[in-house]
What does this fold into?
Amino acid sequence: MPHEDFVTQIVTNTDKHGRVKSRERNDLEYKESFGLSSWAKYAKTMSAFANNHGGYILFGIKDSPREIVGVNPAFETLKQEKFTESLNAHFSPELIWEVGCVDIENVSIGYLYTAESYSKPVIALKAISSEKISSGDIYYRYRGRSEKIKYPEMSRIIEDRVKQEREQILKLMETIRNSDTTNLGIINYNNGYFSTPYGADVAIDRKLVMQVLRKAKYIKEGSFDETGGRPVIKVTGKIDLAEEVPVPDIEPDVQYPYLQKDLAGKLNITSYQLYSLIWFYKMKGQKKYHMEISTSSSGKTHKFSDIALQFLADKINENKDNSKWFDDIKSSYQHRNDK
It folds into this structure.
C-alpha cells in the first residue's frame, strides 16, 4: 500500500471524539511532535521495525489519548542525508527508510517509514547512552513496543536466514544447470561487483543493487530512463507490482531539474497557482515527482522531475475549459493556510 494511503487510512479512522482508533502496534507508533534531539529514540524504533516486518512512526498524533494535532514545523527541517549518516554509523546492516508528509482534512501528518530488512538482524554498532543502547544490541518490534529481541524471534530470524540461503543456493544451482556455464559470472550483492568468466570484473552502484533487491516490487520490466526510454535494467520473475516508484536514487540535478519557480514558468502559471496544485495533488514526498534537497544557505529546497512537469501540464490541459477548476483548488489551498 502506498505510504499516503496507509497514513490516510489510519488518520481518517476515528471515533466520535475525533480520536484515532488504531492503537500502536508492531508496525505503527505515534509521536505528538518531532524533535531532532530525539533521533536515537526514532532510530531504536526504526531498527525494531526493520527486524520485524517494517513500520511507520507517525508525527502529529498523541498516543494517549490518540488525538490528531498535526506535525510541528521542526519535521520539515529534517535533513535526510545527516539522518542517514547517523543511522548508518550506529546500526548495520543499512536501514532503508523514507520520509514524507500527508495533508488530511487541513492537518499535516509526518511519517518515517522503515522497510523490513533484507538481511536481518539489524544490530547496534555503537552505544547510545540516551536510549541505553549498547553495542551489539538487537531490537524487535512487539505489540506497541520496541524491545531487545527475545529468543523465539531471534531463533526465527536465524531459521529464516538459513532457509533463505538454502533457497538461494538451489536457485543458483538450477541456473547453472540450465545455462551455458562458459558464459556465467557471479554477482556479489554486497559490493555490486559482477565477476565475469573472462577475467574482467564490472561494478555498479551498490545503492542500485540494493534497491533492486529490497524494492523490486516497485520496478516494472523496462527502463529507469523516463525521458528517453532507454532500457537500463530489467527485472524478471514473480514480483508484486502493487506500487510503482519509477525513479531510483540518482543525482537530483539530473532527475529533478526544476525548482518551483522553473515549474511555474514552464506551465505559464503563477507561483501561488503552482503551490496550490502541488498541495492539491499531494506531490511533495512522492519520489517520482519531488525531492527535498538540503543546502548550506537556505537549509532546504524543493526540486521536481520531468514527470511532475508532464503530470501538471496534463492536468491543466484536461481542465482548460473548466473555469472553476483552478479557482476551487486555490480556494481550498487558501482555506488550509488560514486554519
